[in-house]
Recover the amino acids of this structure.
């Protein structure tokens, strides 16, 4: 009973006796307690004293006087309880469930969860067949259970934060959040760890005893593992061990360490790169590919590496990769080598330095649709791929060219649209050592405009289709050699020029079926140096010679020409009777006739006189020689000969319609029989002799639809040869020969076959990923691939995951692939009538077993019988390990390389390789 203060003035309140239900409540509690006593009788022997409800059935009324009421202040103040509350045992809600039953034992103060049991407590989750919760100790125990066959199943799975452990049993304390885990199995950043006993201090530190850790897929029966007696494990950060030994197939090896440190961070971290030791005949002992890795940020890294040989040779290399999502990505590689052969003071001593810079940069198309920067650089010494150490450039040293291109393009939207491109290019000839640099280059192009076109509707007629545009090109070319590169001599061959062109054209229809075009092109060329020629009769002791003087300064010449053409398309179809497999054959012809006029620009030509000289008996009279001061310039010299020619061309396509093998197909299948058979020639009306140009023929024949085409071309000359095998103005048929004389012909094809129904595999042509393509080799590795000793050996991850069905397939099918390239050339310009070149290149791989692969890249010269450069390769996938052997059996680059190592990049330093490098002097 409580008294309520109704106002600030005291008021006398009368009380009325109330009815009570305490009797009924006590009877109910007594009955419930009796039931509980009967239920728990089997768990306790203590007797329960039952209170008599009659003793507590009466409620005594108390008379309260107003004077005894508390004052206002005391009533309004809430006093704190002096009893300190007990700390809560659990800091979070505990959720649990089980499939079969959940039993509470009051005697043991435990709860049992059986079959697919689960406990959730904060970030901690335990799943097991049997879970026991001990309330008195605030601990939980998890075990597996046996199935009907007696197999131990539903072993515990312990999850805390991002860490997952799969032990045989678990003991976890809710208060300390520590755990004892027995026979646990976990995976951390590629490492698979199994141990007998582990003590989890918290979610950051775990102490383990008798631990096996490996990168093998099968933790129960690994191909190899490291065994440590005691370790400290910090998830996603590191493993610190005491004495550790390496076991291979459960056999201990002498490889061991008194202690070990294994970083396991998910983020990239900086650290040292351990070099590989070895010995070489010419340079002595060496340490290769040692250095330091800088994890600069999430968007960029840097690797510094080097090699050192005891004879003084050394190599320095820099590698960096960068990427910014939706913006750009790229990588940079630089390598400098100072190679010494033999020892200083010996007669066979030699020194050679080579270098190579590779830079690839690509911009995401979404970054800026109107602006784009790209780079593809392969610049360096012309003999780099021939002389480079520490790598086998099987497919790249056969390449004769090195090229680079850096460009920036900007589009200015509007009408008309203007495109600006600024670039720098480079090209080096590996054989001759010539280097051609073009920097900077600038091109500006304006989109076509139709000044007489209607604002709406379709353009019709000659006038409305008149269009023009403006193009500009500026270049600065430097011709030099590899020896003069980066010296003052390289600029002596520099040439600069600018070119403007304005084409004007239109197109229209004649008699609905003939398409006509007509146009002219005006071109102006600017140069900044010209060459003046004169004859010096007193030079060379009176023998005389032509002297060429370079004149610095601005000069220009202008050219123009006219062209028109008329063409149409003719279709011819031959249909077969109904019910035949071949339904129809269609022949498509596209004839075209063109007329071109190119005036003679004699105003840009000068003359010099060669006088009679008694010391030169071959020159017995005065001769006037014409020349142009623009000869040898960037854009050459204009023509001094008037040309008026009529051109003829005919394109042919032959297709066939056949019934489809698919019964559900509604249309016939189209098959191409002959594709793009082109014939072209021209007749020079203004010429004085040899007016008819040779007939050029080209085309391709499809063999396997959309997969294999045989390309061919030929040149037929209608004029005859004299006794000195020079072309004369006499028809070949009038000289006793045929109508045309075959002077040149060639045929080639390339195709990839495989055991998968001739399905052509995908070729990675991304220069950021395909190193062979980036080095300007073939992306399909037809001539062999790249083996870089500084990188982890590549392997096919898909091949290492063979299923039982895949293994069974080898009993009747062996996977294989074969890449072919065939080429033949015929020459008969001067009656030689010979096959100038005839060769076949091939590259293939065969999987002899699910994890065994052999391959070869080679070729055969059919003209001069013999094998071309050959590379043999063998690879064995040892699940967690990779083993390969590369061998070049003959040629001046005879060499071999053997490698075995762990696939995982985390343990890439655990490897062994042995090799014989090619003789660099050869």
């Amino acid at each position: 009973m409580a008294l309520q203060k109704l106002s600030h003035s005291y008021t006398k309140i009368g009380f009325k006796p109330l009815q009570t239900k305490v009797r009924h409540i006590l009877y109910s509690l007594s009955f419930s307690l009796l039931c509980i006593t009967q239920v728990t009788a089997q768990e306790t022997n203590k007797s329960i004293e039952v209170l008599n409800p009659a003793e507590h059935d009466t409620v005594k009324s108390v008379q309260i006087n107003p004077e005894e009421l508390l004052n206002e202040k005391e009533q309004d103040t809430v006093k704190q309880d002096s009893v300190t509350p007990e700390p809560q045992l659990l800091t979070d809600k505990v959720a649990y469930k089980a499939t079969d039953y959940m039993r509470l034992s009051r005697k043991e103060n435990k709860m049992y969860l059986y079959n697919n049991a689960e406990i959730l407590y904060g970030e901690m989750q335990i799943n097991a067949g049997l879970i026991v919760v001990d309330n008195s100790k605030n601990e939980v125990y998890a075990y597996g259970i046996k199935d009907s066959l007696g197999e131990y199943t539903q072993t515990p799975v312990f999850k805390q934060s991002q860490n997952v452990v799969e032990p045989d049993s678990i003991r976890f304390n809710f208060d300390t959040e520590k755990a004892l885990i027995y026979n646990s199995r976990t995976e951390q950043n590629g490492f698979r760890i199994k141990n007998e006993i582990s003590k989890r201090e918290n979610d950051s530190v775990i102490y383990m005893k008798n631990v096996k850790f490996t990168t093998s897929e099968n933790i129960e029966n690994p191909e190899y593992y490291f065994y440590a007696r005691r370790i400290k494990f910090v998830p996603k950060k590191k493993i610190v061990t005491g004495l550790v030994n390496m076991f291979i197939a459960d056999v201990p090896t002498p490889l061991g360490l008194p202690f070990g440190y294994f970083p396991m961070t998910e983020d990239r971290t900086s650290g040292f790169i351990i070099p590989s030791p070895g010995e070489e005949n010419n340079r002595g002992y060496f340490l290769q590919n040692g250095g330091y890795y800088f994890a600069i940020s999430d968007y960029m890294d840097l690797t510094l590496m080097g090699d050192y040989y005891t004879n003084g040779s050394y190599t320095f290399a820099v590698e960096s990769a960068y990427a910014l999502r939706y913006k750009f990505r790229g990588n940079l590689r630089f390598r400098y080598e100072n190679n010494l052969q033999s020892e200083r003071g010996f007669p066979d001593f030699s020194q050679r330095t080579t270098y190579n810079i590779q830079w690839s940069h690509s911009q995401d198309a979404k970054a800026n649709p109107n602006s784009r920067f790209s780079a593809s650089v392969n610049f360096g010494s012309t003999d780099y791929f021939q002389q480079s150490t520490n790598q086998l450039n099987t497919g790249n040293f056969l390449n004769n060219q090195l090229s680079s291109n850096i460009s920036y393009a900007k589009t200015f939207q509007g009408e008309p649209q203007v495109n600006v491109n600024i670039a720098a290019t480079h090209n080096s000839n590996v054989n001759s050592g010539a280097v051609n640099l073009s920097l900077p280059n600038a091109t500006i192009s304006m989109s076509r405009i139709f000044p007489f076109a209607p604002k709406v509707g379709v353009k019709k007629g000659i006038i409305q289709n008149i269009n023009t545009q403006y193009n500009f090109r500026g270049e600065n070319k430097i011709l030099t050699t590899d020896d003069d590169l980066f010296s003052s001599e390289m600029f002596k061959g520099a040439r600069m020029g600018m070119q403007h062109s304005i084409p004007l054209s239109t197109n229209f229809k004649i008699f609905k079926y003939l398409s006509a075009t007509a146009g002219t092109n005006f071109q102006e060329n600017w140069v900044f140096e010209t060459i003046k020629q004169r004859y010096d009769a007193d030079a060379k002791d009176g023998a005389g010679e032509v002297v060429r003087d370079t004149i610095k300064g601005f000069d220009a010449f202008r050219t123009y020409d006219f062209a028109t053409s008329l063409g149409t398309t003719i279709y011819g179809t031959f249909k077969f009777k109904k019910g035949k497999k071949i339904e129809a054959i269609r022949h498509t012809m596209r004839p075209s006739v063109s007329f071109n006029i190119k005036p003679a620009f004699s105003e840009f030509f000068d003359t010099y006189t060669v006088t009679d000289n008694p010391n030169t008996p071959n020159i017995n009279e005065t001769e006037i020689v014409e020349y142009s001061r623009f000869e040898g310039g960037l854009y050459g010299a204009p023509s001094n000969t008037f040309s008026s020619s009529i051109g003829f061309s005919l394109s042919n396509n032959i297709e066939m319609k056949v019934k489809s093998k698919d019964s559900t197909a509604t249309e016939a299948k189209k098959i191409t029989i002959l594709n793009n058979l082109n014939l072209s020639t021209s007749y020079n009306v203004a010429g004085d002799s040899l007016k008819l140009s040779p007939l050029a023929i080209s085309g391709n024949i499809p063999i396997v639809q959309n997969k294999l085409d045989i390309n061919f071309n030929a040149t037929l000359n209608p004029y005859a040869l004299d006794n000195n095998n020079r072309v004369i103005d006499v028809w070949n048929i009038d000289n006793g020969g045929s109508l045309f004389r075959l002077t040149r012909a060639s045929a080639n094809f390339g195709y990839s076959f495989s055991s998968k129904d001739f399905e052509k595999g995908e070729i990675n042509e991304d220069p950021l990923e395909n190193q062979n393509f980036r080095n300007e080799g073939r992306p399909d590795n037809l001539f062999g691939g790249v083996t870089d000793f500084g990188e982890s050996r590549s392997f096919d991850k898909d091949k290492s995951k063979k299923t039982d069905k895949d293994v069974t397939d080898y009993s009747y099918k062996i996977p294989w692939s074969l890449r072919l390239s065939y080429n033949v050339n015929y020459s008969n310009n001067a009656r030689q009538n010979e096959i100038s070149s005839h060769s076949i290149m091939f590259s293939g791989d065969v999987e002899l077993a699910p994890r065994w692969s052999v391959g070869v890249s080679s070729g055969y010269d059919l003209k001069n019988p013999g094998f071309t450069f050959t590379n043999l390769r063998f690879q064995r996938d040892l699940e967690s390990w990779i083993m390969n052997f590369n061998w070049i059996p003959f040629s001046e680059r005879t060499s071999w390389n053997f490698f075995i190592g762990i696939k995982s990049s985390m343990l890439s330093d655990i490897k062994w390789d042995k090799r014989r490098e090619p003789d660099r002097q050869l």
Remarks:
- The domain at 94-263 is CATH 2.60.450.10 (lipopolysaccharide transport protein A fold).
- The radius of gyration is 45 Å.
- Confidence is low (pLDDT under 50) at residues 1-77, 758-764, 792-812.
- The longest helix spans residues 22-39.
